Amino acid sequence: MSVEGDIYSETLAVAAKHAQLWLNTISERSINPSKNIDEILHSFGDVLPKGMTNPADVVERIAHLGEPGLMSMPSGRFFGWVIGGTLPAALGADWLVSAWDQNNAARGVTPTTAALEEIAGQWLKDLLGLPTSADVGFPTGGTMANFTGLISARYKVLSDVGWDINAKGLIGAPTVRVLAGEERHITVDLALRYLGLPIPTAIAADSEGRIMIDALKQTLESGSGPTILCLQAGNIHSGAFDPFEEAIELAHQHGAWVHVDGAFGLWALVSPKLRQQLKGIEKADSWGTDAHKTLNVPYDCGVSIVAHPDALRNSFGTHAGYLESFMSDAGDPTDKVPELSRRARGVPVYAALASLGRDGVTALVEKLVTNAQLVGEELKKIPGCFVMNDVVFTQVTFCFEDDERTKAIEERLIQDPTVWISGSHWQGKNVLRISVSNWTTDGADVAVAVEAVRRAAQP
Ligand SMILES: *Cc1c(COP(=O)(O)O)cnc(C)c1O
User: Fold this and answer.
1) SS (H, E, C) 408-449
2) Ligand 1 centroid to residue 382 C-alpha, Å
């Protein structure tokens, strides 16, 4: 073996040892880090060594000193935000992606990673029931998946009125109307900010956070010109889905592009029991989702799906002379995502899907929902606890008699080492949220979560 081979082996063995230790003890660990950031900064120190350090020792030190500052995010008892853990196949594949170190920009240069992403893309469209002719890209996450859909939208609605955004930019361009539900995710606004588009006109939503069709109709009719509508599959408080069938039909009557933010909720489409709630969603023009949430692949991995490859490829395609002979009309990875150079982050998606199979993906999503519904039912039995949403997917939002009490319970829960459950504001109230997004969460974890809430709620 070469000297380099020896050095890699020693270093990777240290990394593997610590990774296994972390993952194999996660189910028993305290959920919170035992040190805060100041303590961790102090333990690492801030002096850049003058000379070299053995690579294996560097990795050992990171693992050893870093461990007390790790949040048990991949735990089945982590219910914060919308997170998700890591499937073994996805993690293994992610390690390979790093070791292979392919710059996955062009099909002709990195055939294996480009092919695996293409296959993963086909499988995803098939599982989700989205148009087979759509382009699939793997950006960093949901935000950039929204950006990818919306840049395609911007290109198309402006080109429909004779404005070439790539040549002329936005200055002097016809005004683009952007509409979105009042309960859209904040990253829709962030993606629009990248694009020089305005804060959307808010469409009123119902008590589950779904846009109301009458309000949409009124807004669409009150204006004209190039229009983009952002819908939502999966509200972060209620898990609810916008009424796609009617909304998309209305928007299309007005010539609008419809983008769907389905960061975690798009995955409901893999379940025959759940997909009825998303009826008509396949008629939208673009969809954004995360693989690092519901599908449980490691960070960072989003998925963008665009039904109009021309609009997408015209937005992102680059034609550098030095790459041209390796690019193809079939659509290179770089034509479908914001980046030129990037890791092959679709490969862990391929691995997750290959290991679960069609039935396994359905079972994963349905298990999350079953456990979320169980959480909802059990919380209702706690005196003073009100479950605010219909648990139609993976999210449960609840509160207590008044804001002060909910806040006090949140503060106790944040100290609880057994689970991570944190607060939010919804419908003018302090609330608590439980997001069941980890593939390992089971009935025992649900019981621990409910017990933690019961303890925190004791007078
Ligand atoms: C998480 C989330 C996003 C943003 O996704 P990132 O992966 O964090 O960039 C957008 N929309 C919704 C509904 C989300 O839950």
Assistant:
1) HHHHHHHHCCCCECEEEEECCEEEEEEECCCCCCCHHHHHHH
2) 31
